[in-house]
Amino acid sequence: MAGRDGQQLAATHWQNQEVWYARIRGLKIVAPSSPADAKALLVAAIRDDDPVIFLENLALYNTQGEVPDGEHVAQLGKAAVLKEGQDISIITYRRHARRFERPAASWCSRTTG
Questions:
Q1: Closest Cα to residue 18, out of 29, 27, 8?
Q2: Phi/psi zone of residue 109: left (φ > 0), alpha (ψ -120 to 50 degrees), beta?
Q3: Which residues, in sequence order, are bridge partners of residue 3?
Q4: In 3D, which of 46, 33, 36 has the Cα closest to residue 68?
Q5: What domains, with CATH codes, occur in the chain?
Q6: Dmax over Cα atoms in the chain, in whole Å?
């Protein structure tokens, strides 16, 4: 299911379907932030015994990135930690996860000296 967080127009600018789906008991939602995430999460969603909604972001369709060959399966229910630190936590998903990688690295380099 494709979505466009932050890119809705006019009367639909506030609507994100994942908020509605998150309220359904027993339903799992996955939202990749990169091509590698898309592969890993799609395989995990297909193999999972519970119902899973795979939310694609239209802004990621043209995103380029490495995709591992062979078996690459994400663990559903566990967040991906892109950069570890001690001073600040940035919690986000979909395309925003990659958008904050550079600012997070900049913050870490400034605080560690």
A1: 29
A2: alpha
A3: 57
A4: 36
A5: 2-111 (3.40.50.970)
A6: 47
Give per-residue pLDDT as tens, 66-77: 888 999 898 998
Instruction: Read off the DSSP letter of residue 36.
Output: H
Q: Which two tokens stand for residue 102?
A: 């550079």
Asked whether 30 and 51 are in contact (CB, 8 A), the reply is no
pTM of full prediction above 0.85: no
Which two structure tokens, joined as six digits, stand for 76? 């559903």
Q: On the CB side of 5, how many CA atoms lie within 13 Å of its CA?
A: 18
In the prediction, which pLDDT does 33 show? 84
By the 8 A CB rule, do 101 and 85 touch?
no
**pLDDT tens digit sequence for 4-52:** 555 555 555 566 777 788 889 999 998 888 888 889 999 999 999 999 9
